[in-house]
Amino acid sequence: MQRALKEVEERKKRGTDRNDFLEKFFRLQREKPDQVTDTAVISMAAANITAGSDTTAISLRSIIYHLLRNPQHLETLRQEIDTARRGNRLSDPVTMEEAERMPFLQACIMEGLRIHPSIGGLLPRDVPRGGCVVAGRFIPEGHVVGTSAWVINRNTSIYGHDAAEFNPERWIKGNKAEMQRYFLTFGGANRMCFGKNIAFMEMTKMVPTFLRHFDVQLTYPERPLKEKNFFFVIQEGLIVNLRERGDEQSNGGAEKEAY
Known about the structure:
2 domains, two-stranded antiparallel sheet, 12 helices, 9 strands, three-stranded antiparallel beta sheet, globular, alpha+beta, CATH 1.10.630.10
């Protein structure tokens, strides 16, 4: 936030002919000074600096950690990856098109995102003109309402009685359309994260490529993962042993510890 504040103040003093995001914010402020305050400009600039810096890493840690905690799902995913490799349907690195044809992989990614959203706070929304009704209560215009993806993503009426558990099968056997409708990890509607597709591409390519080349085990399986919520819900203590897999997906190779 301090970096964004400094950049906004310096840009206002010196001016610029650059056509970047910050200049677009200033242009919007000149057009609507009553609505776009200096605080709003600083907030939007800070969001541009921090967006995507931790979220994808948090999501990848969630996917890998929960797979390691649920070896039956890890084995199913590894079989899907190895079957695709033996059928010459897998490049190295794995392409987006190839990964999208792997249903259990897609289910694991969605489940990892569902059970551990990267954003821990509320997703605020301004109540529009005329107000609105939320859960049977009228909310006047101008108020701010919000909900947390951590609450919605674990709602048992949407995701089933085991919503607090990591179960990729729900995305294959359950009502996928209904679950996606309420899936809030990336926000929703026209306020959805505009980096969603890039994040999905990174995870969809990285997870199968990583598991294709390495056998992974928790170094300290008796230790629970620590989580700290600083707006981003960051995990700490995910330490694993990696063993490189051979050309025929054997368990040979040197073992290494990774953090």
